[in-house]
Each structure stands twice: as C-alpha cells, then as structure tokens.
UniProtKB/TrEMBL annotation:
Its main location: mitochondrion. The keyword Coiled coil does not apply. GO terms for biological process: proton motive force-driven ATP synthesis. The chain crosses the membrane at residues 12-32. It is found in: Mitochondrion inner membrane. Keywords: ATP synthesis, CF(0), Hydrogen ion transport, Ion transport, Membrane, Mitochondrion, Mitochondrion inner membrane, Transmembrane, Transmembrane helix, Transport. This is ATP synthase subunit e, mitochondrial. It comes from the Eukaryota. GO terms for molecular function: proton transmembrane transporter activity. Pfam families: ATP-synt_E (PF05680).
Length: 53
C-alpha cells in the first residue's frame, strides 16, 4: 500500500505514527458519532410514539 501524497508521504517514524494516530482518531470519532446518531434516532422514535398516543 503506497502512502498518500501530502505531509504524511514520508517514510520516517514520525510520519508513520502520525498516519496511524490520525487513522485511529478517525475510527474512534466515527464509532462515537454512529452511537450518538443511533441513540438520537431511538429517543426520537420514543418521542414520536409518545406523541401518537
């Protein structure tokens, strides 16, 4: 896998660490956002159910 062009294209340890940390940060952010959206959707459905009764 070739490194992407830009500031992280170097093969130094720092560039590698920066790439890995940026990738894991993206994963963490994505999963947190997903959980938040799912919780929001659930509470929205509950509120809708209450409003209909």
């Amino acid at each position: 896998m070739a490194p992407p062009p830009g500031p992280y294209s170097g093969t130094s340890t720092l560039a590698l660490v920066a790439r890995v940390s940026a990738f894991s940060l993206g994963l963490v952010y994505g999963s947190v956002k997903l959980k938040y959206l799912q919780a929001k959707a659930k509470s929205h459905k509950k509120a809708e159910a209450k409003a209909h009764h």
